[in-house]
Amino acid sequence: IQHPRLNDDNRDIFWAYVVKRSDIFGDPFKLAYDGKYTLFTVDKLHLKQVSEKADTEKFSFKTSRENKPSELSILMKFTGLVHLDFRNAEAGSLDEREKGPIQFLDILFAQGRSSPLFELSKSFKAVRNSFYCIPHGAGADMKYGIELWRGLFISARVIDGFRPAINIDVSHSCFYKRQSLINLICDILNGDEREVKFHPNQLRLNTRLQPEQLSLLISELKGVNIHTTHRNQDRIYRIKDILSTAVSMKFKRDGNEVSVAEYFHDVYGPLKYPNLPLVQVGSKSKPIYFPVELCQVANCQRYNKKLKACQTTSIIRFASTDAPTRNLKCIDMVKKSNFNSDPFLKSFGVQIKAEPMIVDGRVLP
C-alpha cells in the first residue's frame, strides 16, 4: 500500500479495499494481513499479473486524519506457497519467525482481534503481538491522565516434537483516558498528588496557566491525537505544539487582524475559557489552532512516553500475581478471545485447545 499517511492506517485501507474488490478476494475470512506488506490467502487470488510485474491499482480512501479521500496505490504480487512444515525449526528457536510457517501463524491469530470486518475486533486494541481488551468503564488509574489496560500476548512457537504451539500470556500497557483535553490537562497538572488542585469545575473566564505549567503541558501533550467537538467531523489531529491563549494569538482574516477567540466567537459562539492555551495541529506551513476546550482525546490511544517512577511502581503492583492467578487470567483472556469461533482460523483449518498444555517438570535443588 503506497500512500503518504501513517502505517497505522494500512489495516483500515486494506480491509476497505477487500470489501470494494470482492471479485478479487472473495470470502474476506480467507485472508490474513499483517498490516504492512504480507498477505496470506487460503486460495490463490486471480490477479491480472503479467510475468514478474506486480498488479497495481488506484484506490480512493478517507482516513480518520483527512477531510476528504486521497488517492493511493495498492500493489499485489504472488510470491509463493507456504508449507506448514515445522521439522526445520528447532524447539524454542526465534530464528524461524521471519520464515513462512511461524510468521503465518502469528499473523493469522491476530486477524480476529485486528480486522474491522469481524465484530470481536471492536473489543480489542491491537499493538503488535498484544491485544488489549477495551474496558467498558475506566481502567486502572495511573495518574497523569493515563490508565492501565490488560491484554493478551500471542506468539507462535515450535515445541518438542516439531509441533506448533501458541505462547499466550497476560500483557499490560498504558492508554490515555477517554476524556476531554481539559480533563487531561488537569490530570497532568495534578500529577501524582492525592489532593486535587486542578479541576474543570474550578476554571473561570479569566483562568490562565503559569509559564512552568505551560512548559509541562508542551512536553506531555505533543504527539497526542485529538478530535474536535465544535464541528460534526470525526477527523483525528495530532498535537504539534501548545501555544499562547486564544485571546493573544492573532491571524489575518479577510485582511483584518483578529484573535482566535474573536474568530470562534463570530463563527461558533463565545469561548468559555479564552485565556487557556491553544493546541497547534496541521503542518508547519499551514498550522491550525484549536482552543483546548473544544478538543477530546482520541479513543484507544496508547501512551508511548516514558513512564514516571510512581506509574512504574503502580504497574508493577497491579500486574504482579502468583503463578496460579496468572494462569487463570490467561485462561479467562483466551475464553474472551473465543478462538474456536474465529472465522479466520476456521477458514484456514486451524484449531486451538482452550486449556493450557500440561508438561512434566521438576524443581531444581
From TrEMBL:
Pfam families for the chain: ArgoL1, PAZ
Family matches, as SUPFAM superfamilies: PAZ domain
Domain PAZ: 180-299
GO molecular function, one term: RNA binding
Protein name from the UniProt record: PAZ domain-containing protein
Species: Trichinella murrelli
Gene it is expressed from: tag-76
